[in-house]
Design goal:
Number of helices: 14
Distance between the termini: 36 Å
Helix content: 40-55%
Structural class: alpha/beta
Order of helices and strands: HHEHHEHEHEEEEEHHHEEEHEEEHEHHEH
Length: about 450
């Protein structure tokens, strides 16, 4: 039998399997927002793809500012007498606001032409630091922070908005209100979306408090970087449904690991030399991750020109850690690192990773399953391989490799998400059912022969 005859012979079965794969894919596309479908098909597929990207270096992009992370870590707390020898913090719920004010003051003292473009301070200012967080009473530390914030500066300060009340946003200080109106102090949403498996994979694009829209930090930063209107961003968010604000594809966060730690840069504080690790991310524009101690290092602060500075807690007892994909090398990330990975995902992948067009997805599924099934059937017949089980395993392996590679290619070069796992997963169901059917048919035929 020649090659064309073999293809014709197996064409009917290939058409059947390809059509079934298309139906399965269409089913998942329609019901992708249902928790069980998202959990078992969408998120599993993306987790595998994210694992591939963990230690893949992204190139430096000139149009994107450098990202500098200063961590309020164990060493910072110990040197500032904010942590005891047992690793317990010596302050209450809120980090001393005068210490945060000191960090801002340090940036203010940098020469103007070397200052950062934006500072994000990842601390909750929902309440004052007075007993019970009384809204109208400021502690001495709160007042120091207010007095520091209202100073004139070139760079923009961004602060989290995580509850209805925020003692800075609702301050009666007229200078603070002027800076808020001039968008020199901006309040943003910092919320992430948690799945039922307790992992965080997405961010909320905005939140609403007192009928006001607060877009997500990373979307605001992206708008500021590209000189786009924040009012326009707010109008876009105002028209979104709650489902769209945590879109299963567009709002995904791609996580990158750090490279090997560099401990070669000591820092001198009060005539004492301290050695602290400095991490370099696989995101090209995230230059360094280092202790907030380095804000006292002139060699470090002289390199902050036009950068985006992130300051946030990374010490273990901060309570600001998020479970990410359990199959990744990193099981948890601090809140400030989650925000940086969110920003980098938006900047590097052209704001959003778009879901593949449904028509294109169906064409790809049908074509791939049809071609691979024909080729495998022809090869099996040519070499006289009759095991259907072996054929099922080989088809599954080949299709998984092809579709996984295609999915990575589409994300990397076209910012398109193609769920490689869904049709393969559902096709397994079909093959298992088919295997059971054949087994039952054989058993019944065997019983008939015995009776005869």
């Amino acid at each position: 039998m020649n090659f064309s005859s073999l293809i014709k012979k197996h064409c009917k079965e290939a058409l059947l399997k390809s059509s079934i794969a298309v139906v399965f894919y269409l089913f998942l596309f329609v019901f992708s927002n249902i928790e069980i479908v998202r959990d078992q098909a969408e998120d599993v597929a993306f987790d595998f793809v994210n694992y591939t990207y963990l230690d893949t270096k992204e190139e430096y992009i000139k149009d994107i500012p450098n990202i500098q992370l200063f961590k309020v870590d164990e060493m910072y707390l110990k040197i500032n007498n904010l942590m005891d020898k047992d690793g317990e913090t010596t302050f209450g719920y809120s980090t001393p606001r005068d210490k945060l004010a000191q960090m801002i003051d340090t940036l203010d003292k940098i020469e103007k032409d070397k200052q950062p473009k934006i500072l994000f301070l990842d601390y909750d200012f929902s309440f004052t630091s007075t007993p019970y967080g009384k809204v109208n009473n400021l502690s001495k530390e709160d007042q120091i922070l207010i007095d520091t914030l209202k100073q004139k500066r070139e760079y923009t300060i961004i602060l989290p908005k995580s509850s209805q009340y925020n003692f800075i946003e609702h301050s009666k200080d007229t200078k603070i209100q002027e800076l808020i109106n001039a968008e020199k102090i901006i309040f943003v949403s910092v919320r992430f979306s948690k799945n039922k498996d307790k992992y965080y994979r997405r961010y909320y694009s905005s939140e609403t408090y007192d009928c006001k829209i607060y877009p997500n930090l990373s979307l605001v930063l992206s708008a500021l970087i590209h000189n786009q209107s924040l009012e326009k961003l707010k109008k876009i968010e105002q028209n979104k449904s709650d489902k769209d604000k945590k879109d299963i594809v567009r709002n995904r966060i791609i996580i990158k690991q750090y490279k090997a730690k560099d401990t070669s840069t000591p820092i001198k504080i009060n005539d004492n030399i301290y050695q602290n690790s400095i991490d370099t991310s696989y995101w090209g524009n995230m230059l360094k991750s280092k202790s907030a101690l380095y804000l006292e290092d002139k060699n470090t602060t002289s390199r902050l020109k036009d950068s985006i500075v992130f300051i946030g807690a990374t010490y273990q007892n901060s309570g600001d850690f998020f479970n990410i994909n359990g199959s990744l090398a990193m099981a948890k990330l601090s809140g400030i690192e989650m925000h940086i990975n969110t920003l980098m995902s938006i900047l590097y992948y052209d704001k959003y990773i778009e879901p593949i067009n449904i028509i294109l997805g169906l064409i790809l599924i049908f074509s791939l399953f049809f071609i691979v099934e024909i080729i495998l059937e022809v090869i099996f017949e040519k070499y006289n391989i009759t095991s259907k089980e072996l054929g099922f395993v080989i088809l599954l392996i080949v299709m998984s490799i092809i579709m996984y590679s295609l999915s990575i290619y589409l994300i990397q070069y076209h910012q398109i998400w193609f769920n490689w796992f869904a049709p393969v997963l559902l096709f397994q169901v079909y093959e298992v059912i088919e295997f059971i059917r054949r087994y039952i048919v054989k058993k019944m035929a065997k019983k008939k022969r015995i009776k005869v």
